[in-house]
Amino acid sequence: xxxxxxxxxxxxxxxxxxxxxxxxTPGAFAELVQTPPQTEGPFYPNKLPLDTDNDxxxxxxKLKPSVGQITHLSGKVLDIKGNPVRNALVEIWQVDNKxxxxxxxxxxxxxxxxxxxxxxRFLTDSKGRYYFRTIRPPSYPGxxxxxxxxxxxxxxxxxxxxxxxxxxxxxxxxxxxxxxGDPALQKAxxxxxxxxxxxxxxxxxxxxxxxxxxxxxxxxxxxxxxLDRPRRRR
Length: 234
Description:
alpha/beta, Protocatechuate 3,4-Dioxygenase, subunit A, 5-stranded mixed sheet, about 25% strand, disordered C terminus
């Protein structure tokens, strides 16, 4: 099955009307802060759901959506110089509106919102952009609201991190959030969830750019670079 069939861009293209605020890169590239890595956690799905697209609100062709405050989550994957990383696989996973993960070892599976996909993935476009439609994550015992992220490029995981919500009082007491330490690094993964302009149902928008320290080299690029090097005289 081709990449375009697995990671459909149909829903992503439909979101471009959300406005430039969703995709305009803030600040100069010289000011980019590398996204701090964080633990994957114990509840990365041990069995992927039947639907793994970027719309976590609707599973396949079901008519009933999941419960929760719909959030349009977007951003870019960039290298440390500000260049977009194309064809990066962005994965997210999170609890449903009841605070339950999609995982066989997570508790209360019988009470989980079966209309919430819980996990999604998206392949970045030529400008490094990604987009998900999900819900604003709730808090649950022991953790502040958060969304897990993983970024892979050329079949190699290059970043694992978490997103936090700006203004959440529980952030200050969250063990993993405090472990980041540096306020500048905390800011890099703490984003505002803002009302979507024109929405009559209270939908939100959120954006987090993911800045990776490196990307795996393309063997063809390595070979071309080697050929361009000046040869030593013997």
